[in-house]
Amino acid sequence: MTVRVERTFDLPVPPEEVWEFIADPKRRASAISVVAEYDAEAGSRRATWHIELPIPFVSRTIPVETEDVVREEPRYVKFVGRSSAMRVTGEHEILPTEGGCRLVNRFVVEGRIPGIERYFKKHLDEELSNLEDALRDEVGVRS
User: Fold this and answer.
1) CA-CA distance, 45 to 40, in Å (whole number)?
2) The pLDDT of residue 44
3) What distance lies between CA 103 and its chain's CA centroid?
4) What confidence score (pLDDT) does residue 57 get?
């Protein structure tokens, strides 16, 4: 089973401000609650997320090697994360609007061990809310 989530939110700021946040693998990782820690070099397209999931058979953090595979500044970034437990693909598209911009987020999680997909099916929308909150804090706007 594959879990897919799409979520869109509007922000009253220029697209360039959103790009600064969304194109940074460290900022994206810090917004996700199951990322216990992450390793990334400044300016790099790669990061390792160390994920803690409260599911049976997983008693340690899962390292997920992520890499931005497409960047079209300042409007689109796509990353892929791989581990022995799962594969995650995330896409962030920034569209200009009259009052600022719209951020379209798409995530796909494919689990390779029992419980991964069930966990993300229940919690992926919540994780996108965390991302939205972190982004709004970063650019100085609350919903």
Assistant:
1) 8
2) 82
3) 12
4) 76
